[in-house]
């Protein structure tokens, strides 16, 4: 029973992924022309090229916009450190 349910879930996920792949233009080349993009929440991410970015935007329902050419720096300087230090020494 449970196994059947798992197969069902996987099947639905595959179906959704397939539908989105058709709906979105993910027919990308593997050219590596990195772009640094930022989404609505301020998350920076490096994408291998414009097409991959648009594909991700579409399949994940995201709103990444290109911030600059090249990879994002690993230290996100733009995002303020909002996380409080919870441990009181
Ligand atoms: C995907 O790209 C290839 C190579 O550029 C092209 O021949 C093909 O028609 C494209 N397919 C779609 C669905 O755009
Ligand atoms: C990603 O989606 C947002 C919202 O639809 C759009 O404004 C933005 O231009 C898209 N980015 C790319 C690279 O297509």
Number of helices: 2
Broad structural category: alpha+beta
How much of the polypeptide forms β-strand, as a percent range? Answer: 5-15%
Helical fraction: 25-40%
Pfam family, one: Kazal_2
Signal peptide: 1-21
Keywords: Signal
Protein name: Kazal-like domain-containing protein
What is the strand and helix layout of this fold?
Layout: H1 2-23, E1 35-38, E2 44-47, H2 50-59, E3 65-69
Antiparallel strand pairs: 1-2, 1-3
Bound molecules: 2-acetamido-2-deoxy-beta-D-glucopyranose (2 copies).
One 2-acetamido-2-deoxy-beta-D-glucopyranose (NAG) is lined by residues 53-54, 57, 63-66.
Keywords: Signal
Protein name: Kazal-like domain-containing protein
Signal peptide: 1-21
């Amino acid at each position: 029973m449970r196994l059947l349910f798992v197969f069902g879930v996987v099947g639905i996920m595959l179906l959704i992924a397939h539908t989105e792949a058709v709906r979105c233009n993910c027919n990308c080349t593997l050219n590596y022309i990195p772009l640094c993009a930022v989404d609505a929440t301020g998350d920076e991410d490096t994408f291998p090229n414009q097409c991959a970015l648009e594909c991700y935007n579409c399949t994940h329902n995201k709103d990444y916009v290109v911030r600059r050419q090249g990879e994002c720096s690993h230290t996100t300087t733009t995002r303020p450190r909002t996380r409080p230090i919870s441990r009181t020494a």
